[in-house]
User: What shape does this take?
Amino acid sequence: MGIFLFAVLLAIMAHFLLEIAFDLHPFVHYLFLYVICFAVLLMNILIKHYLTKNMSRIEKFLLKKQKNPYYRFLYGLANKDDKKVIHSYRKLVTQKKYQQHYPVLTVAFSLYFEQIDGLEDEIKKIKSQKLRTYYELWLKIKSKKKVSSKELSKVKIKWMKEALLAELEEINGQTEQAKIHRGNALKQAKGLAFYQLKKHYERKYTN
Assistant: This one.
């Protein structure tokens, strides 16, 4: 509600400034106001998704969006809430607007419950090359298969590579190196990715 109120107030201020400075057609005038409101609201969402490292802001954003099954799913994954994960996943896979995301949702759901059998075929359906490569290597690590440096070099998103290296080092018993890579992953990640990683690491490695 706060950001919406800010957007409205900004639009009102812009309304008076436009009236004073320009003699615009009413349609153009109100179009400008609409664009300003939309831009402010969109920027707020983009910051929470991709830019901020403020955990409380991200969590507050997710809690406000709990009626949306996608955000409820993300919140459940991060906070180890099995009921939320199951309920929201079932809703997501029945909605057509999320159809292109079914493979990613299914892979995330399966990895959450550590159900990796037969997951290779589902990963192959992921359209995003970056995500597909990430999950392919994640599955290999979880399956205790060898991952080559050449394969890791294909991971272009830095936090993803560091997260994979952390998991790989942990499985190989290199706990100190794993800790360094986890720290690097958190440094590189932002927004929802940062929130997911930090919650996962806190739950798994903090006594």
